[in-house]
Every structure is written in structure tokens, then in C-alpha cells.
Amino acid sequence: MASQRDVRNKIASVKNIQKITRAMEMVAGARLRRAEQRIEALRPYAEGLRRMTRQAARAAGANAAQVPLLSEHESESNVALLLVTGDRGLAGGFNSQIIRAGARIASELAEQGRNTLWYASGRRGVSSVSFRGNELAGSYTGFADRPAYADARTIADDLIQAYIDGSLDRVEIVYNAYISPLTQRVTREALLPVAHAPFSAEQEGEGDPTQRGERPERPAPVDYEPGAEEILKRLVPDFVEISIYRALVESAAGFFGAQMTAMRSASDNAGEILTDLTLEMNRARQAEITQEIMEVVAGAEGLS
Length: 304
Hints:
By secondary structure, this protein is an alpha/beta fold.
């Protein structure tokens, strides 16, 4: 049985760890609330841009296929995977589930005879992809906790240019969509060509409005100047940028939620360990007292 000093040192160490995990939980909770506010402010803008893009594509009709980011390539030999992770850990399986999803998608693409080009946002994603022996075509770090729109634009510019140049035939993004502090859903979405991206009601899973008892969406009468096709050429890059920015913001909120949950669980586990160590110390104290009593009694008997 360990001595009281050893158990007391363990208790002190666990208490220090518990203080750290509680502080990290509080910090993550405060950052989570700010991230949730950013998501709430972003969603109406993203929805409005999605609606405008969809209506412009309908108005352009067959001419929409002439927009480079809407048209599909003849073959899909090279597929880019953009993995959105955090810059830090201590968030449970938040980062690892994105890495596993990316590896699974890459295996599926390899079975189809397609080559995977890796792009990663966040230090955890960059290091994990490199550790697995995969070469990164693009890495973006340093802003996972608080992404700015300029960060999304930087990523979008690289992907758009590669797609227009023909070095990429398809682009997909994998990120943790924020559901609640306890739940983050691994989400896989198509970015390019935009014709495959979820910018239509049907692709987003909204279904047929008439089946939900709602009136079908009717585009407002709009006169496009200089034309629907030209407007679409300007809207589509913005749609790609806002899609990436939304993924970054949702991932940031999901990270703080996962970290808050993980640190709360760690604090609770530390409390249970402290309870067990306290009982162990009491047993050790009792054993030492019993030993001292037995020694005193033995000494008294020896003197008599």
C-alpha cells in the first residue's frame, strides 16, 4: 500500500489538473458563445447568396454551362479534398474523425481510379495528413479558432484557380458541422463544380416544397443587367467563398463545443479520482495508526 505522502502528492497533482481543465472549460464556453453568434449572423447571408445564385442559374438557362465553375470537366481524374480541422487538440475526437473521414474518402476515390489531392486547414489536419505520408497541395493554419472571410477567400482562390487551370476536376470539403455543444456532424460537401454543390433546395435536402404543404418557390421577376450569365460569373466565386467560410465558422464553433465537453468530462473524471485517492489515503492513515498501536502494545508487553 502506498504511503500517505505518496497519496497526498497524487491528490495535489490531480487537483492541479482539475483546475486547468475547469479553466479550459470556461474559456471554451465563452469562445463557443461568440462562435455561435457568428454562425447566426452568417446563415442569413449565406442563404441569401445561395438563393441569388440559384435564381441566376435558372435565369441563365443553358448559358449557365458556359460559366467555368459551373461546367464539369470531361473526366474526374484529380479530386481535391479540403479537410477542415482545428489548430489545437484536447477536444476529444473532433480532429481525428475528420482525418478518418478523409482517409475513407481517399480510399473510395482510389478504388474508382481517381487521384486525391490533399488540402488541409488547421495545424492538426496539416500534421496528420503529412504524418500519413500524403503530400499537401495546400495548407492553411493559424486562424482555426477565429477564421476571417479573407482566410476563406485565400483558400477559395487557390481551389478556383486550380480548377480553372484543369489541375483539379472536382473539389470536396469535409468539416464538422455544428449541431450543439455535444454534437458535431462530419459533413462532406461538393464545392466544385458548383453544379454539384448544395446551392439548390433539392441538393440541400429540403425536398419538394409541395410535399411539405408549402408553396413552391417562385423567383421574383428580376431584370439582369448586363445579363444573368455575367451576374452568375460574379456570384459563383462568392458562393464558393461563403461555402468555405461557413465551414470554417461551423468548425470553429464545433471545436469549442467539443473542447468544452472534453474538459468537463476530464474535470468530472478528476473528481472521481480524487474521491478514490482520498479513500486510499484514509486507508493508509488507518493502517499506519494500527501499525503504531501494535508497536506500542508490543513494546509494553516486552517491558512487562
